[in-house]
Please model this.
Amino acid sequence: MKSTVVIALPGDEPLAEALSESLGGIVAMLEYRRFPDGESYLRIHDSLDDSSVVIVARLARPDPKIPALMFAADLVRDLGAARVGLVAPYLPYMRQDARFKPGEALTSASFARWISSHFDWLVTVDPHLHRYESLDEIYTIPSAVIPAAPALADWILTNVQRPVVIGPDAESTQWVEAVATHAGLPWRVMRKQRFGDHDVRIAAPDLSGLEQRTAVLVDDIVSSGTTLARAAEALIEAGLGPPQCVAVHGLFGKDSRNTLAAAGIGKVVCTDSVDVAEGVIQVAPLFAPAVLSMIEGNMTQGDAPGR
Ligand code: R5P
Model:
């Protein structure tokens, strides 16, 4: 193979530049625009002959981005790329991981089938693995999961005095334990019941001995903000001050910031896996080793690091 070429979906050029610097590759520009009828126009001016192409795409709010991703993956192969990998700091559609009602689309599996048929490998940050234990259950290409925990832990240690790390629900244990272990901090997990998108009840765990600490709520996703809001209220009621919130992926749905503020949450920080103002923790430096393994290592499904 001749070279490594990194290509960004529109808006993700800074991430592609940062990744390509770490990889020693070049960035090729994807010209993307819409025709007057709304259909997509794409053009790549650089030669891709026999190259290893890495497409970087932040896929929060994915539906408007999927045509560009689909056409770009096809285009780079048309232009001679030998292999095409996807770096998706936020992997969408992972939360529809079961058919909760008869007839519902299992979009996690459909999306995985589509990605697996267009790309040779996938690198992502902390996908929402809840009912699936591993991406291998639905993705048939090699994939590597980059944990954000060390970066979150470093941010907490630098910015919060005497923290205690708290997860809002049992699913968050995986992230909370990893962050607390990396930072050498105490941790607890709350109990959550979800009755609907905006209807969540959360109970505080035993917090005795931790009253003088600053609660840091850690979760993988902020979407409606309901989980963090109810968790913050329960912590305040239990005698702790308003918590600092740290999340991997800040999706911030409509009204979520108001929901968070109304619960007494002053500040939320996230990684830049999603393009939001709160995304202050950079993920690009975390990717390079896994991407290099994918490019050089000819990983097969199940071999990839960090699964
Ligand atoms: C739950 O499964 C996740 O780990 C998050 O707690 C959840 O997705 C957050 O969503 P929301 O902000 O809508 O409560």
About this structure: The two ends are 27 Å apart (CA to CA).
